[in-house]
Amino acid sequence: NYMNIGSNSTKENECLSWQVFWEKSTGNKRLFQGIAGNYFDNFKLAFPFSSETCILDFGCGQGYLASLLA
Q1: Most Cβ neighbours (<10 Å): which of 43, 51, 56, 65?
Q2: What string of DSSP letters covers 1-59?
């Protein structure tokens, strides 16, 4: 398990676990891009925006949504 849930791991081990998670997830690039694309399409419908709109992307992934928003 990537987060060491239920163990007495240190914060460093938990961060390392997330690093391992993203390293192992790179093979699913098309899946994550598809999810981001679907989210982006729904986001546009719910919150119409223009090139003048400011959006904060707090960065909890590989940046696929941010690149679509840019």
Answers
A1: 65
A2: -TT-TTS---HHHHHHHHHHHHHHHGGGHHHHHHHHHHHHHHHHHHS---TT-------
